[in-house]
UniProtKB/TrEMBL annotation:
Belongs to the NifD/NifK/NifE/NifN family. Keywords: Nitrogen fixation, Oxidoreductase. Its EC number is 1.18.6.1. Residues 20-445 form the Nitrogenase/oxidoreductase component domain. This is Nitrogenase iron-iron protein beta chain. InterPro entries: ChlB/BchB/BchZ, Nase/OxRdtase_comp1, Nase_comp1_CS, Nase_Fe-Fe_bsu. It comes from the Bacteria. The lineage of its organism: Bacteria, Bacillati, Bacillota, Negativicutes, Selenomonadales.
């Protein structure tokens, strides 16, 4: 039995798992209040990304584009950034933060967005917008390397390093959630409130689940303020839940401001949630209350009803953001399942050094493959041509056709999930997330048993 970690052996990508770096920078940007990003590139670099956000959350988001055309792609288009900043500031009097997000085209032609920021700071902002608080931040996210995951990581780090400023201790915990859903944020806030911990939740996207109000529709935005970002340097500690989505920012705060920092684990499942709470306790000194022990007990009870009877030895393939995939794999193992195939969709070469992956390699007692720089063809090909038998697929909606075409039950998890209702509202982290995920997996397997007439009678006597 062995667990192999290797890059896909084929050149090219067929049905990618991820989109590009600017997408991640845009996701981090919409988590900040009074912020509208300008993506310096073709309009499609915003249009398709906004569509993904809107499909996933069923909400509207505001992101701008410098709208690069042929002449700009040849001769340079920094003047379009200058115009875009001016138009944005005129059109939106509340906007205070404008990240300038580069793309593949503008990085290749070498447009100097740092130079534009300097020019605008010394020119337009002083002359036309004197007295108005405006922060222009250049985010370099060329899409010919990395993925939306690394783009998010770069943006979070650059936002934090732009604003963080030492003043006096604020007694708060920095919580960098990574790429999560509103339901996850609600659950994380609940856990922290139960421990009476005051936290700055960074790139806070709980309000991406927005109401329809009597005065009209609501444009969704994040709730992390400039003051929140500035205060990160005065925190009593930082927890970044995800190594690859916020880890760089946490390391920066530790290095620059001596903020005690813990990176990971992604609190998916019982043991990772236990570790998260222990880490909160370690950094804040606050005890874990009896109420959370009770919640843990409820979750354990729910999982015990399912694990051995229904999940044992079920073979699972998981794809998506690396932290999510690893957390889900650990959870599946705890539920006696066999995550036989993990697909990590970008070219990050540090995955083999991830301690969680090393632990999987040392401990799994079944054959497991972890494919880096993977695409969805890696999954499809194994099923169609190499005899891979699966009981369940876990991943986002872009892989739905692999599941549908091959009659394999699938639980949608990750980003984007647009073909099932309301998934963004449910957590996958914390004890509530563990219960919800396990019950989703169980109910999906039950439905499959019924449709395929595969021991469906068991459900009569359970
Ligand atoms: S790959 Fe390049 S052109 Fe396509 S969306 Fe990403 S940044 Fe824009």
């Amino acid at each position: 039995m062995f667990c192999e970690v290797k890059p896909k052996e084929r050149a090219g990508v067929i049905n990618p798992i991820f989109t590009c770096q600017p997408c991640g920078a845009q996701y981090a940007s919409i988590g900040i209040k009074d912020c509208i990003g300008i993506v310096h590139g073709g309009q499609g670099c915003v249009m398709f990304v906004r569509l993904l956000f809107s499909q996933h959350f069923k909400e509207s988001f505001e992101i701008a584009s410098s709208s690069l055309h042929e002449d700009g792609a040849v001769f340079g288009a920094t003047h379009r950034v200058e115009e875009a900043v001016d138009v944005l500031l005129m059109r939106y009097p509340h906007v205070k933060v404008i990240p300038i997000i580069s793309t593949c085209a503008t990085e290749v032609i070498g447009d100097d967005i740092d130079g534009v920021v300097l020019k605008l700071n010394n020119g337009l902002l002083k002359e036309k917008y004197a007295g108005r608080e405006v922060h222009l931040i250049s985010l370099h996210t060329p899409s010919f390397k990395g993925s939306m995951v690394s783009g998010y990581d770069v943006a979070v780090k650059d936002f934090v390093s732009h604003f963080a400023k030492k003043d006096k201790p604020n007694g708060k915990l920095n919580l960098i959630t990574g790429w999560v859903n509103p339901g996850d944020v609600t659950e994380l806030k609940h856990l922290l409130a139960a421990m009476q911990v005051e936290a700055t939740v960074l790139f806070e996207i709980e309000n991406f689940d927005s109401p329809l109000m009597p005065d009209g529709n609501h444009v969704s935005h994040g709730d992390t303020t400039i003051a929140d970002l500035t205060g990160t340097a005065d925190a009593l500690g930082t927890i970044a839940l995800n190594r690859y989505e916020g880890g760089q920012a946490a390391t920066y705060l530790e290095r620059e401001f001596d903020i005690p920092t813990i990176i990971g684990p992604t609190p998916i499942g019982i043991r990772n949630t236990d570790t998260f709470l222990q880490n909160v306790k370690k950094l804040t000194g606050k005890p874990i209350p009896e109420s959370l022990v009770w919640e843990r007990g409820l979750a354990l009870d729910a999982l015990t009803d399912l694990a051995h009877m229904f999940f044992a030895d079920k073979k699972v393939a998981i794809y998506g953001n690396a932290d999510l995939v690893i957390g889900l794999a650990e959870f599946c193992i705890d539920l006696e399942m066999k995550p036989v195939l993990l697909l990590l969709g970008d070219d990050n070469t540090s995955y083999p050094n991830d301690p969680r992956i090393k632990a999987l390699q040392e401990n799994v007692d079944f054959n497991m493959e972890i494919i880096m720089n993977a695409d969805l063809w890696e999954l499809e090909n194994r099923i169609k041509n190499e005899g891979l038998e699966l009981d369940l697929i876990l991943g986002h909606s872009k892989g739905r056709f692999v599941a549908i075409d091959n009659n394999i039950p699938m639980v949608r998890v990750g980003f984007p999930t647009y073909d099932r209702a309301g998934l963004y509202r449910h957590p996958v982290v914390g004890y509530a997330g563990a219960t919800w995920l396990a019950e989703q997996m169980a109910n999906t397997l039950f439905t499959d048993m019924e449709y395929k007439k595969n021991k469906e009678w068991v459900l009569n006597v359970w």
